[in-house]
Design a protein that fits this description.
Blueprint lengths: L1 E7 L7 H14 L7 E3 L10 H6 L7 H13 L3 E3 L3 E5 L2 E9 L5 E6 L23 E4 L2 E5 L8 H9 L4 E6 L5 H4 L2 H22 L2 E6 L1 E2 L2 E2 L3 E3 L5 E4 L5 E7 L1 H10 L7
Length: about 260
């Protein structure tokens, strides 16, 4: 069995040190569990703070933020998908997820392809879209990467499955408009939609889906770990903390041997 931990929390805007301490706090609280993969939300170190994005981006190695996450990965002997940070490369900014192995080394990184430019979203005004589908081989298996709005694009997930991904990880800051967030029924509908789309991506591609969201400031929470059968193994709902599940990657191998979805079409 493979132990997965989603860390869902409300980042303090622009306070990297405080947010990194929150990450370690939740890691420490879950350190009695078998930690094989830990996932953090999109913009985990800054929250959705445009001033931080523009004025305090990280370098191509992830800067001090990712350096500290590397130390945590080694300390807690776990692989970490380090949410996202804003990475500066030349004159361009990218919304980038760094993948860290148990030894504290950067095993790969993924730059968000599908930027949120709709329904009031302006991500593309600041951020350059990535152009490469990324999978990373870790000691637990092959990990496919998406970030937030990528989940709206089924072919992105299809390509990850074709590349052999067994787990697809999605750091996110999944927002809804204020009038929805503050309306109990509307928020419930948005959360049900979110669960449905995660379950669909898992079922369509016969993979585990691990989506890790922020909570509050317009983000709906509901960090999920979903099996290929669509069973929700962990749902953070609207709580803050570390949310754990054991997964069986032999299930992925079995289902793909019966129904080779990644080789069809």
């Amino acid at each position: 069995m493979t132990g997965i931990l989603n860390i869902q929390f409300k980042p303090t805007l622009s306070k990297k040190d405080i947010n990194l301490k929150k990450v370690e706090y939740y890691l420490e609280k879950s350190s009695d569990k078998k930690l094989d993969l830990v996932v953090l939300p999109e913009f985990f170190s800054t929250g959705i703070d445009h001033n931080s994005f523009l004025n305090e981006p990280e370098n191509e190695q992830g800067g001090e933020t990712i350096s500290r996450i590397c130390k945590l990965a080694k300390k807690y002997n776990t692989n970490i998908v380090a949410g996202t940070v804003i990475e500066k490369s030349g004159e361009k900014l990218y919304n980038t997820s760094f993948i860290i192995d148990r030894n504290g080394n950067i095993a790969g990184k993924y730059r968000k392809i599908h930027l949120y430019n709709y329904m009031g979203g302006t991500e593309g005004e600041r951020i350059t879209a990535g152009d490469k589908i990324i999978t990373v081989d870790l000691d637990i298996g092959k990990i496919g990467l998406g970030i937030c709005y990528d989940i709206r694009y089924p072919l992105h997930y299809k390509e990850l499955a074709k590349s052999g991904a067994e787990i697809i990880v999605l750091p996110t800051a999944w927002l809804v408009p204020e009038e929805i967030f503050n309306n109990k029924l509307a928020l419930k509908n948005a959360q049900e939609m979110w669960r449905a789309i995660n379950r669909t991506r898992a079922f369509d591609n016969l993979v585990y889906i691990v989506s890790c969201n922020q909570w509050a400031n317009g983000c709906i929470g509901e960090s999920l770990i979903v099996a290929p059968t669509t069973e929700i193994l962990s749902d953070a709902k609207t709580e803050q903390g570390g949310f754990y599940a054991d997964i069986d990657l032999n299930m992925v191998k079995l289902y793909k041997s019966i129904y080779p979805i990644s080789t069809i079409d």
